[in-house]
Write a structure and sequence with these properties.
This protein has one domain: Metallo-beta-lactamase, Chain A. The chain has 7 helices and 18 strands. Strands 1-10-11-12-13-14-17 form a 7-stranded mixed β-sheet, covered by helices on one side. The chain has a 7-stranded mixed β-sheet with strand order 9-8-7-4-3-2-18, covered by helices on one side. A hairpin with a 2-residue loop joins strand 10 and strand 11.
Amino acid sequence: MPGIMRLKLAEDGVPEADFSKGSVYFIGTATTLIRFGGFTILTDPNFLHAGDHVHLGYGLMSTRKTDPAMEIHELPHLDLCLLSHMHGDHFDRVAAKGLSKDLPIITTHQAARDLKGKGFRNLFALKTWNSIVVERGRTRLKVTSMPGKHGPGLMNALLPSVMGSMLEFGTVEGRILVRVYISGDTLIHEDLAGIPKRYPDIDLGLLHLGGTRVLGLLVTMDDKQGVEAIRLIRPKQVIPIHYDDYTVFKSPLEDFRKAVKEAGLEGRVIYLDRGETYDFMVPASRLTSGTMHHAE
């Protein structure tokens, strides 16, 4: 697979990987801990508290309305961080100070430049559809950058570049056991149609919702776009995140719940409160027969 970056993680002191199950723990905003195959992955680290302010650029600010479910010093050992883009509600001053400067971070080229200026040393910048393969022991994770568009028209050029992520967890022999899609802060746009064409079998999708508005313009999916994303990208199960946490989030989770019910999609959506965990199991058939194969 020429052109794909590779990262080999140290195996010292790491227990044998369990391929039968994994979990998603919701910390708040777009911050989660994803665990599978012995990997622990942090997404979009935001550890500010209710009442704290973030700068969104161009003199715009937003106030956090919720507290994170854990403090940064309570995090377990991390193997990777996935960052969809550089905004204060996705990588805040607490993360900049509290995370190890050697933590591998997978993100956009623009965010990687900003993080380098903050002293982070282990940065992997991806363009859309490009990938990095991370291995440790028998576990192989392929992370591929998914298309994202943070704003409509000219507004998109004024906002940070953004990426979604496709996580393909599997074995070093090439078998894929679980696919997890993370939308990043994107609106529905035509390039998203390429995702189900390349990945027709997605187990779980984490959708950034909230209906964020900047200068009155929608810059993250609201309830209606969230439902459209489920229909377009077709993950088997969906967890909404990035909602109700900041004053710029104008589309509450309750609106998404209603839209999901009206669309007849209730059976596919899992709702987590901050501090709750979703545990998922890998079908025994995948563990024995290798019915899923990796996409080049």
